[in-house]
Amino acid sequence: MQIPYIVEERPDTGLINSKLGIWIFLASEIMLFGGLFSAYVFLRMAAPEGDFAYWGTKLSIPMATINTLVLISSSVTVVLSWASLKMKDFEKYKMYMGVTLLCAGIFLVIKYFEYTGKFHHGIYPSSSTFMGIYFTLTGLHGLHIIGGIIVMGYMWLPIGAKLWDTDPELFTNRVETAGLYWHFVDLVWIFLFPILYLL
Amino acid sequence: MSGHDTESIQEHIKVYFTVFGALAVLTILTVGASYLDVSTTEAIFLALTIATIKASLVAGYFMHLITEKQTIIWILILTFSFFLILMFFPLITATDQTGI
Question: How far is A124 from chain B (nearest CA, A)?
Fold first, then answer.
């Protein structure tokens, strides 16, 4: 059975159901990360003076800056992949989505080096309150990156991309929905970067 | 898709590249600002202001919120209200500790 209103807009909401669905999901995600951001503020206020700033110096600003630029790049390429489908250019879609996946992979590799660098220096989540919240926030964010890779990878590989041949509009909507999720992952990082690495 | 639609998408693409440039510059600016000799409060204000501008650009242009339907805008206003309450919890606790 076909899910209703995933190609045509539903008359009462003026939206396709998948777009409304992803926005409600993102609203729940705002609350999930919001709870952790709130915990960060709470812990920082309760910590001894300068404790968070001291542990923050153990993190690599250059690595995080590169990762920020990588994620921003992936955000623009995912929206360009959707725009390519709107212009019926499937080859360009494949290229832009491929670059998005590559950026997501680079982000995880850099994160891997960051984490292992900490472990080699004997720094773990249990080392301090700051490190506890650092690993929690970046770990959860990393899981979201992996989730994005799985979904976008499916749409990039022939198994998912073949939908373009039978129902191009539905496929375009799927890419837009996945793109909205991916932009949210970028949004979270935009706030994680300054609060963990720079303050 | 009509010619007009393709033209409008091409206009969008120009905007995406402009926003990308702005985000890259603001990222470098955030890092630069963190080296300024200012108080912690000023540093937090500066960093969060730049982050909010960046987030608004992503949400407004990449996520198309500036042209999105009212249904979604209202969902987000409601969510943001709850988010603000969450962020005020630590402040309430701090008030408790001072005995007020």
Answer: 25
Q: Cβ atoms within 10 A of the Cβ of B69, count?
A: 14
Alpha-carbon distance A26 to A198, whole Å?
26
The percentage of chain A sitting over the pLDDT mark of 90, rounded to a whole number, equals 93
Name residues 25-44 of chain A within 8 A of B (Cβ): 27, 30-31, 34-35, 37-38, 41-42
In angstroms, rounded to a whole number, what is the distance separating the alpha carbons of residues A97 and A89? 12
User: CB neighbours of B53 closer than 8 A, spacing ≥ 6?
Assistant: B26
Q: What is the rounded average pLDDT of the residues A125-152?
A: 98
- Within a domain: residue A122? yes
Angle at alpha carbon of residue A125, lines to B40 and A118, rounded to 5°: 85
Which residue range is the domain that position A138 belongs to? Answer: 18-198
Number of domains chain A is built from: 1
Domain-embedded: residue A85: yes
Contacts of B21 in chain A (CB under 8 A): none
For residue A178, what pLDDT is reported? 98
Distance from CA of A83 to the nearest CA of B (A): 6
> Helix count (H) and strand count (E) of chain A?
8, 0
pLDDT at B2: 40
Are A14 and B71 inside 8 Å of each other by CB?
yes
Residues of B in Cβ contact (< 8 Å) with A180: 63
Residue A62: C-alpha distances to residues A75, A106, A110, A120 (Å): 20, 14, 11, 19
pLDDT of residue A115 exceeding 70, the answer is yes
Which CATH number fits the domain that encloses residue A177?
1.20.120.80
pLDDT of residue A136: 98
Q: Residue A12: inside a domain, yes or no?
A: no
In a domain, A82, yes or no: yes
Let me know: does A179 contact B14? Beta carbons within 8 Å: no
